[in-house]
Each structure stands twice: as C-alpha cells, then as structure tokens.
C-alpha cells in the first residue's frame, strides 16, 4: 500500500479510537482490511480506502476500526492481578463497603468477555456474602462483534484451555455443540455495553474497581492521558485501577499512586491519609 494510504488509515484510527499505528505496519493493515473490502464488494484495499475518502463517515469506518482492534484476552490473564483481587483488594473493599452493601466494578475493555466472567466467578466462588449485596459489574468494549460473543458466553476448547481452572470449568460451564457455554448464574451478573474510551464519557457511578488492562499501550499519548484522567476522576477515592504490566500511568496522571500487592501492581487515587473516605453513592447514570 502507498504511504499516503497508510497515513490515511493511521489518522482514521487515531480520530475514531485513539489507536496509534506504528510505522512499518502496512502489512498489518493489508491483512486485516482486505477482508473488509471483500465483504463490502470492493475489489481491493485501495478501492476501500478511496471509498472511505469519498464517503466520509459511514458504516465502513466502524468496520475498519474493529478490524484493526486487537482483541487478545483469556481467562485469569496474567494470574497475579486476580490473586491480588481475591486475597487483598476485594476483601478490603467488602470491609469498607459493609455499611452500604454495594460494589461497582467496571471491565473497561472486555473484548470477548473472559475478564469480566473471571471476576464474576471470583465473586461467586470466594465471596458468598456478596449474593446479598448490590453488585454492579459492567463490561464494555468498542467492538460490537466481540461484545456479542461476550454476551453469549460461548467458548471453544482452546479458549477454555487458556487459563481456566478445571474445577471452575466443571462448576460454571456446560458443554454445548462441541463448545462450552457459561451458566446463566454467571452471565446474568454482567452488564455488557458498547463504549468507546476515547470519546465523551457519559455519567457513571463512582467505581470501586476499574480493570483497564492492556489497552492504553495501543493508544496515542494524548488518548492515554485523557482516558487515565477520566478513569481517575470516576474512581472512588479508595478504589483501585488495574492496568496491564507494561502500562505505567504515573507520568501521565500524577493523581494516581502505585500500590504493590504481592507480585502485582495496581493504582489508586492519591489522597490525604487523614481525610475521611466518603461513602459510595449511586447517582442517576446512563452507563
């Protein structure tokens, strides 16, 4: 593809989704967008790009963005964050929220759903007292197609083999037509919603826990900073933010401080230790 065409796609991705395409990734653009051109009945990648230039914003823009989005995920991905959730973060949040019996949790780039389902299984397996609480577990993603898969909760044997303990497979999944379907008791705990992190954010509840893992590394620096600022503003003063191991927000968002929990690091808002922690509230919200 030409340099001009590559720059057009690069600029489109930054504008639509904050994704920064590195130089030399023309081969990736070709491999991922040729199927988009074929589905649209266009003879080549060049024809697809010409169509995008002439038509402006249209349905193909969204298809291009989705095709270029990386949806890598797995159950209990990287393991250590979920050990920290089980042994430190969730017990602490449960103690702090005992008076209101309420938790708000957001998996902010859930892809095909393994992350929020992992959290839901942790809550069900190790914290039975939460069955009497109001627990809101929201999972969002930019791509409507992967959200549809997440809502269905259907996984191949290969996807199951990537991180899911056999005991949890036996307890929370059922075989269905050669694949595995997560049981309704877990699926109904999660609200799946489409959401573009780089666009305007709607009103939200104060989050006790935000999982924003392995997402910022694909964004431009400006998009990373905006997303971190918004996440920090919407995090409860004693809440937790989990990022990917390669993501360091401290240079971009000084309002956060690092917390080390075993072999895992996460983040929380800086505050005066003597300041009282306000109770969680539930404002009217469209999210």
Report on the structure:
The chain is an alpha/beta fold. The chain has 2 domains: 3-68, Chemotaxis receptor methyltransferase CheR, N-terminal domain (Chemotaxis Receptor Methyltransferase Cher, domain 1); 80-269, Vaccinia Virus protein VP39 (Rossmann fold, 3-Layer(aba) Sandwich), CATH 3.40.50.150. It is built from 11 helices and 10 strands. The strands form 3 sheets. A 5-stranded parallel beta sheet has the order 6-2-1-7-8. A hairpin with a 2-residue loop joins strand 9 (256-261) and strand 10 (264-269). The chain is globular, with a radius of gyration of 20 Å. 33% of the residues are buried. The model is unreliable at 273-285 (pLDDT under 50).
Summarize the structure.
By secondary structure, the protein is of the alpha/beta class.
